[in-house]
Amino acid sequence: MHAARMTRFCSSTLLTAFALLLLPGSGRAAVELPGKQTIEKVDFERHVMGVFGRVGCNSGSCHGSFQGKNGFRLSLFGYDPEKDYFALTREVEGRRTNPRDPDASLLLLKATGQVNHGGGPRFSKDSWQYKLLREWIADGAKWTKGSGEVKAITVTPTEYTFTGPEQSGQVKVKATFGDGSEEDITLLCDYRVNDDAVAEVTPLGQVKSLRPGDTALVAAYRGNVLAVRLLIPTPSAPGFKHPDVPETNYIDKEVFAKLRRLNVVPSDLSTDTEFLRRVTIDTIGCLPSPEDVRAFMEDKSADKRAKKIDQLLNHPMHAALWATKLCDITGNNTLELEGQAPMQAKLSQMWHDWIRKRVADNMPYDELVRGILCSTSRDGLQPDEWLKQFKAFEDSASKGFDTAYADRPSLDLFWRKRNGNVPLEQWGEKAAAAFMGVRLECAQCHKHPFDRWTQTDYRSFANVFGQVTYGISPEAKSVIDEENGERKKAATGNNKQQALQVREVFVAERGRSLPAPDDIKPLNAKAPAGPPLGAKALGGPAIEIKKGVDARVELFQWLRSPDNPYFARSFVNRVWGHYFGVGLVEPVDNFSLANPPTNAKLLDALAKDFIEHKYDIRDLERTILSARVYQLSSRTNDTNKFDRNNYSHSYLRPMMAEVVVDVLNSALGTMENFGADAPAGCRAIEVGSSRVQNPTIAYVFRTFGRPPRTSACDCERAMDPALPQKLFLMTDPALKAKFDDPKGRLRTANDPKKTSEEVLDELFLATLSRYPTNNDKKLFAEYQKKTDARERKTALEGALWALINTREFILNH
Question: Contact, 328 vs 714, CB < 8 A?
Fold first, then answer.
């Protein structure tokens, strides 16, 4: 603060103190609140700032925004009492609070609409909020620093179970403050319900159930957030008894236990064909062939589903599918990599291949993450040995997509970006989202509105990665300079080919670091930036930056420790979300205080089992796929037809864009040609590049939501249905051309020796993985009569076109 500003601050403080001596009486009257509550003495931090949060004054859309509103700025959600107090009592010549005439305070005049207020009236003159603020002002607008330091908030009850829809209840919220005192803050909280179709809440904390289901009630008080679950059982008929449903493992136990509390009966077990189609799409990203369907239906062994699960988990395409998903998570963005388009695509493929090899080998998840998070280019090699290896990779890539990069111990491409050193903030965001399932972006500018993270947490975590450098290390400088010099000479004259300039990912002795944010500086601080910040794991220990020691290794050791609250949980949640279409925490990368899991016991059990099995990914998948819950039918009953997050039936869900391409080719018996974008003969889930040059494939990928991988958010992959998707299936000429492929399904199935009914069976098996029903056969017979009898192909082509345009085909279920 400038000297003049400090002088005004001190002078104003003395004048206010003198004015308080002239105020009549001492000790103020208690403030009566709804529900027969009273506040004996109004406290600035506990009550005044609580009211601001309660009525939205310090929200991001109002005065809590970065620039404030109409010259008045409050800290977001009351995070900084000192600055808020200064804004209220010292700015605009102290007109916002007037202890001599409290009703003339600009704060009250604007909030009640007596003076023009851009936010409109927030409360009336006869409201308890007005009385509370007025009492504080009349008592001298005092502030006791630290009086409202919140240690914890609790909500009673911790879980609210209604008896059914159209029932009401009341939650109570208490705060424990720094001095050990407790206080009922129910009226000072801001409330919301995550699913307002299931329940609603009033500003006073009164909750009403609307329809069967469950959701989370979120209570927020001055940046502190807590959520409790609301359960609304399905009304049951007199004498209803929940059926005993077989349980395969602990997954079934936890899911069915919650369903019993909700009076929800799970669907029946899926049919063999329904299960086979679902598990094949989920594990290897394509459809079972007609031969697979027939063989599975004919197999009468009791363990055929278990054997099929094992077969699919060991299929080469299973690793390819998960490599594609993990490329999304780790940010394999082709355009961020070095070189021109052909080389960028090959580097992206190397990234994909590196992950695919480890999934195929069933490397433990923690070791896979170590190879990404703690990677360097040299991996312990001497500079000349590493340069020889680097040039071998480059030479192989120049000839095609077959390189030995996947044999490297670590994935240095994760850190190799064409623009050099990426801002530390981005590395913190990427690591938090990828390996902890936490979205940190909001905390870059202010306290996270729905979680515990502050700007200090954000910057301290980013500082863990300050040593990571992409350039030329002192140890390798001589050999790299010599190599780059030769490349520069070779690129002159008629040789215009731009070769990759050699750089490496290494750990610098002295890394970059972010300072403390401005918001934590005291008002009289003169420095342009906050004090230096150390490195700290997000929600974990401080990490000392030492010469010759990679701070990322210490971070990794903390991540994979059994008591880490994020690492195992975030990954098992991703796997669960993939196989069910909805995560236990949804979105799957949004673990936060305001977004609790729908079944916390199940999430804990999955994480515990994953850790006990030493992060065995395949064992986790086998456990999930073997559960009866996964194998339930998508057909609903009267009790579970509205269920969207308790897994009482299989949910209809869209497929990944790459899987859509591969499923279409499975059905039509064709192959895709990716040209220079990927190895010849590969499937869409094997393509590493986030950007393909083939305009037809690029259009399909974009239409069905393949992400560009430009951010650390899972939300980049769009999974919602859209009109262009339907138009593509109905009218796209490139798709139509596949029907005329000489080796395609229509040509090979339409064998003159087979009857129309036999060919129709083949088309149904190839697309919907089932035989046609009697009604299906009847519709086809009627359609065939309308076509030229001499052109059976016309009728079959129409039938195939209709099949791939059904919801049953384009959705997994």
Answer: yes
